[in-house]
Structures are given as structure tokens and as C-alpha cells.
Specification:
The complex is a heterodimer of chains A (167) and B (177). Chain A contains seven helices and no strands. Chain A has 167 residues and is an all-alpha fold. The radius of gyration of chain A is 34 Å and the shape is elongated. By secondary structure, chain B is of the alpha/beta class. Chain B has six helices and seven strands. In chain B, β1 (44-46) and β2 (54-56) form a beta hairpin. The longest helix of chain B is centred in the C-terminal third of the chain and has 18 residues, at 159-176. Chain B starts with a helix and ends with a helix. The relative contact order of chain B is 0.19. Classes of the chains: A mainly alpha (167), B alpha/beta (177). The A-B interface holds A 59-60, 62, 71-73, 76, 80, 99-105 and B 28-29, 31-35, 100, 126, 130-136.
């Protein structure tokens, strides 16, 4: 939209318009290098494609997801995701298909299994333990403080002590 | 008992240290293959040398082999090639998987640099490569006599890799069957 308005503003300079159009097309070209998601006609499928390719990790460039990576393998993975979506496969089936080939590594979101419980619950357990330690330490400190107060003599005891001292 | 509890943080830190130290020497770009312990994926692809002859995973049954994934566009493959020639001369079973390549270029490569392979599977689309989880050439899979993938090496094979990593496994699986 903005772009269109911008273009009409410089209608007076047709050469410029051609140049800008050319530049826009040139900069848009790298996008075509990725699998054309627009080929998926169903908007729901398109959305799932976006989500899946972002959740899959590129095995070659390890800190990139498949949606952003330019590696040939990432391109292959995108193609297969595209194909499987059109075939009506579920997200789980598609992820499983990739894990079978590239290992757990391709998941940015590790599966919930006995092997990964530590990964998923570890931080909460650690926080829990930490909170517990703080509570124990705090209550112990409070008890000690109370202990000191207990050590202070009551009025009667004070009198008793003074009487003994006098004797 | 109380006093022993005081050492708990120290023990935990030392344990964590060991775990992290383990990870230090590892190359994170080398992934363990998801195929280990599983049979080769099914495929039907032509041979590089004879387009009309198609082979399947059964062509790799019967003997322990190294399945070497290579391509002419792969710079490290050129570096690796002389060592593969040497292994072949020593009687190691090598089968090539020519990956996402052009037949003409691949044939030239073999006639120029020597052909260490018993045969080459021609996979221009990278179909079998994808099923094997190939993510960077060269990669080499150790396949036992039953066609089970036993090991994968990512990267160039040289003297050190062969002697330390592949040879022990190659001999172990050859001796066992």
C-alpha cells in the first residue's frame, strides 16, 4: 500500500519509477530462492508451513531455522514440508519424518519424552529447590532470633537472679 | 550428617563441571546420524556408469562397505579422494553415492582422479541423500553385511579418521559376520 502511494507521488518522473520498480524486483528476487509459499493456496496450510519451517532447525547452519536458511538441505526440507502439507500430513507426521532422517537435532522444540524430562522440568525443579532452601534458611533464622528473645529473662527470673546476686 | 550436607554444592558443581567438560571437545557441527542401527532406506536409483541399470538397497548387502557421499562441486571431496584411492587399493569396500551432481562431471572426475568405488549410485536429485540425512558432503556411512547403518563420519576421511574411527568399526563388523 505504502509502496503504491510512494510510486504515485513520483509520477512526474517516469524514469525514476522504472528504476525503483527494477530495484524492488531485484531485491525481491532472493525471496524467490526460497520455496514459494504462495503456491500453497489454502491460507491455513500456508500458516502451518510458516510455523513448521520456523520450528525445524537447519542441520548445516545450526543456528538457523529452515525457513531462513539458504543451505541446500534447508531447501530440500522446505520442499518436503510443502509436499507433505499438500498430501494432507499432520504437523507431527512431518516433524517425525524429518527427525527420522536428521535426528532430534532438527527440532527446535524438543520432544517431551523420558530422555528430555530433565530439559523440560529441570529449571522448574531447580527453582523449586532454590525457593525451598530460602524458606528453610529464613525460618531457621527467625527461630534463632526468637531463641535469642527466649534467652532474655522474664520479670520473675530477673528478680530471682537479682535476689541470688544479693545473697 | 549436617556437615556432609555442606559438601553438597561442591559435589554438584564438580558434577556439572564434568558434564560441561565432556562437551568441550565435541564438534557441534558433527551430528550423530538418526539412521544408526537401522537398515538403509529403500531406494531405486541408476548407476553412475550405466544409466539403464538400477540398484536398490539390496546391492549393498552381503559385505561391510563404506558408502561415500560425494560430488564434484564438493571441495573437500577432492581433498579426500586420494585417500579413498589408497583404501581401495588396500581392499576396503567402497561404494559411492554421487549426490546432486551431473553425470558428465562425475565421470570426468573419476577418470581424472581415479575410481576407488566398486560402483557409484547416481542420485542427481539427492533423494537417497535426503533419506540418509546427508547435510554436508563428504559423508561416509559404514554399512554392515546385513545392510544396517552402523556409523557415519561427516567430513573428510584421512589417515587419522580411518585409523582411529573407521577402521576399528570396519574390522569389528567384518570379523563379526
Amino acid at each position: 500500500m505504502n509502496c503504491v502511494r510512494f510510486m504515485s507521488n513520483i509520477r512526474g518522473a517516469p524514469d525514476m519509477r522504472g528504476l525503483i520498480l527494477g530495484l524492488l524486483v531485484a531485491f525481491a528476487l532472493p525471496v524467490l530462492g526460497e520455496v514459494q509459499t504462495n503456491q500453497l493456496e489454502d491460507p491455513e496450510l500456508r500458516e502451518r508451513y510458516q510455523k513448521l519451517t520456523r520450528e525445524l532447525r537447519c542441520p548445516t547452519c545450526q543456528n538457523e531455522n529452515v525457513a531462513e536458511s539458504g543451505a541446500p538441505v534447508a531447501n530440500d526440507i522446505r520442499r518436503h514440508v510443502h509436499r507433505m502439507l499438500e498430501e494432507g500430513k499432520t504437523d507431527e507426521q512431518i516433524i517425525e519424518f524429518m527427525v527420522e532422517r536428521f535426528g532430534e537435532f532438527v527440532r527446535y522444540r524438543p520432544e517431551m519424552s523420558a530422555r528430555t524430562y530433565v530439559l523440560w522440568y529441570g529449571p522448574f525443579v531447580a527453582i523449586g529447590v532454590g525457593v525451598l532452601v530460602v524458606i528453610i534458611l529464613a525460618s531457621r533464622a527467625r527461630r534463632r532470633r526468637q531463641g535469642v528473645d527466649d534467652a532474655a529473662l522474664s520479670k520473675e527470673e530477673q528478680e530471682k537472679v537479682e535476689r541470688w546476686l544479693r545473697e | 550428617m549436617r556437615r556432609a550436607l555442606l559438601f553438597l554444592p561442591l559435589i554438584l558443581v564438580v558434577a556439572l563441571g564434568f558434564v560441561l567438560y565432556e562437551g568441550l571437545g565435541k564438534d557441534p557441527s558433527k551430528l550423530e546420524s538418526a539412521r544408526i542401527g537401522k537398515p538403509l532406506p529403500e531406494f531405486s536409483l541408476p548407476l553412475l556408469m550405466e544409466d539403464e541399470t538400477r540398484v536398490s538397497e539390496e546391492a549393498l548387502h552381503g559385505e561391510v562397505v563404506l558408502l561415500n557421499v560425494w560430488a564434484t562441486w564438493c571441495v573437500s571431496c577432492r581433498q579426500e579422494h586420494p585417500y579413498l584411492n589408497k583404501l581401495s587399493r588396500e581392499g576396503v569396500n567402497l561404494i559411492g553415492l554421487n549426490y546432486k551432481d551431473e553425470r558428465g562431471l562425475a565421470l570426468n572426475w573419476l577418470s581424472d582422479l581415479g575410481d576407488p568405488y566398486a560402483f557409484n549410485i547416481y542420485d542427481p536429485e539427492g533423494v537417497l541423500g535426503f533419506d540418509l540425512g546427508v547435510y554436508g558432503t563428504p559423508e561416509t556411512f559404514l554399512i554392515d553385511a546385513d545392510g544396517i547403518v552402523r556409523h557415519r563420519h561427516v567430513g573428510v576421511i584421512n589417515e587419522r579418521v580411518w585409523e582411529n574411527e573407521l577402521r576399528p568399526l570396519y574390522e569389528q563388523y567384518s570379523g563379526g559376520t
